[in-house]
């Protein structure tokens, strides 16, 4: 889906910049409360590429110190959905004994985050692993998949773009979250 202007093909705005800012602030207050009680700064582990905008706002909204690192996971989808997710970039920060907060743009089927939390991250012996997703789309969640410990908003089964979320790598740069016109019911 090609576009020539930023808002082209966005049928409607689901969350404005102001709403996203309020959402990030709410999530940041919850995270602060929990991690202050633990007394140790968390490692925010962003899942590339979709989490970068959310993560950069979240880390600035947090009033507790935190470290930041990234992972990248290749998820196979649609006609390629036969394979399991594969790790493409590993974190550089030693995670042993640390409180790890995985930061993701959207939790959909849960395949990606279930793989990260249950198969990949346990080898590092982190003190704890929790999940923070800007958006939670529970309608397509697979049975037994992980849940978000922190979520900015729960949304219905819409395909959304902007604020880091893409459709074929486009639209990540939109400052708001929108629903595409003629958007797929869900990604394939
Ligand atoms: P899951 O493994 O099915 O939970 O998928 C998570 C990944 O799918 C997210 O990190 C996104 O990259 C992508 N995804 C799921 N729903 C959407 C959407 O509505 N818009 C853009 N990307 C999405
Ligand atoms: Mg993603």
UniProtKB/TrEMBL annotation:
Keywords: Cytoplasm, Glycosyltransferase, Magnesium, Metal-binding, Nucleotide-binding, Purine salvage, Transferase. Pathway: Purine metabolism; GMP biosynthesis via salvage pathway; GMP from guanine: step 1/1; Purine metabolism; IMP biosynthesis via salvage pathway; IMP from hypoxanthine: step 1/1. Its main location: cytoplasm. GO terms for biological process: GMP salvage; guanine salvage; hypoxanthine metabolic process; IMP salvage; purine ribonucleoside salvage. It catalyses: IMP + diphosphate = hypoxanthine + 5-phospho-alpha-D-ribose 1-diphosphate; GMP + diphosphate = guanine + 5-phospho-alpha-D-ribose 1-diphosphate. Residues 23-167 form the Phosphoribosyltransferase domain. Its EC number is 2.4.2.8. It is found in: Cytoplasm. InterPro entries: HGPRT (IPR050408), Hxn_phspho_trans (IPR005904), PRTase-like (IPR029057), PRTase_dom (IPR000836). One of its GO terms (cellular component) is cytosol. One of its GO terms (molecular function) is hypoxanthine phosphoribosyltransferase activity. Its cofactor is Mg(2+). NCBIfam families: HGPRTase. Belongs to the purine/pyrimidine phosphoribosyltransferase family. Purine salvage pathway enzyme that catalyzes the transfer of the ribosyl-5-phosphate group from 5-phospho-alpha-D-ribose 1-diphosphate (PRPP) to the N9 position of the 6-oxopurines hypoxanthine and guanine to form the corresponding ribonucleotides IMP (inosine 5'-monophosphate) and GMP (guanosine 5'-monophosphate), with the release of PPi. This is Hypoxanthine phosphoribosyltransferase. The lineage of its organism: Bacteria, Bacillati, Bacillota, Clostridia, Candidatus Fimenecus.
């Amino acid at each position: 889906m090609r576009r020539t202007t930023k808002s082209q093909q966005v049928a409607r705005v689901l969350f404005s910049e102001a709403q996203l800012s309020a959402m990030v602030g709410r999530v940041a207050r919850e995270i602060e409360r929990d991690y202050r009680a633990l007394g140790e700064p968390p490692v925010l582990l962003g899942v590339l590429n979709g989490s970068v905008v959310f993560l950069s706002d979240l880390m600035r909204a947090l009033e507790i110190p935190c470290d930041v690192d990234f992972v990248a996971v290749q998820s196979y989808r649609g006609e390629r959905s036969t394979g399991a997710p594969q790790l493409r970039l590993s974190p550089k920060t030693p995670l042993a004994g640390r409180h790890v907060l995985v930061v993701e743009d959207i939790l959909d089927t849960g395949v990606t985050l279930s793989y990260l939390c249950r198969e990949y991250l346990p080898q590092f012996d982190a003190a704890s692993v929790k999940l923070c997703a800007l958006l939670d789309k529970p309608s397509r969640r697979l049975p037994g998949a992980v849940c978000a410990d922190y979520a900015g908003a729960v949304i219905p089964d819409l395909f959304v773009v902007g604020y880091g979320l893409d459709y074929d790598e486009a639209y990540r740069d939109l400052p708001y979250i929108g629903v595409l016109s003629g958007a797929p019911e869900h990604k394939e």
